[in-house]
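SAMPLE LOG
Freezer: B-3
Tube label: C17
Construct: single chain, 237 aa
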Amino acid sequence: MQKLLSYLRRGVDEYKMINEGDHITVGVSGGKDSLALLCGLSKLRDFYPKKFTLSAVTLDMGFGMDFSPVAKLCEELDVPYVLKKTDIAEILFDIRKESNPCSLCAKMRRGALHDAALEIGSHKVALGHHNDDALDTFMLSLIYEGRINCFSPVTYLDRKDITLIRPMVYAPENYIVGFAKRMELPVVHNKCPEDKRTKREYVKNLIKSLEKENPGFKTRLFTAIEGGNVSGFGVRG
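STRUCTURE (predicted):
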């Protein structure tokens, strides 16, 4: 836990993600990343100098997944939990019959999560994106869009008055995998038929190959992202 907290504290402090009195909603998909973030923030809440409160929201996409273990974990962590039912799966696969649903799905999930946060009076949403996600996103943009881009550590959405934060931006995925196993986190299997079949999965494997052939590649790539101020990286508030 201490190592996870050090990654979280670095991200939170470097990019000034938390302010006094914040009500932070953790978007909990049931995957290892969001569960690790939930655990880390619940522990950080106990001693961080700027006091904040936590809630957790899970979007039920309609794939028949059981989130009761997530609800139990939230109860143990003393974090209020909301399971929000949606018809996203029905819209994507039954009504629209999307052949490439990922982009629309992401947009619909973002909107539903933001609305759920506002409904409980929260204007700050924490997402479980980690260091490897940043590298993947950067490479996806470069390869498929021909531009230098990534998500930002902190993003303010003025239309909804919501701030998105990514406290695990310095945490490598392999650490989070190990943390989830050690803590026996109740990871919920993703039943989406598109899981592991995306361009992101291809890029993830490409980066692994480049790291194997050129040790230190991932570290240098992230250094380039921060050094180039890509999408707010390296720009301290």
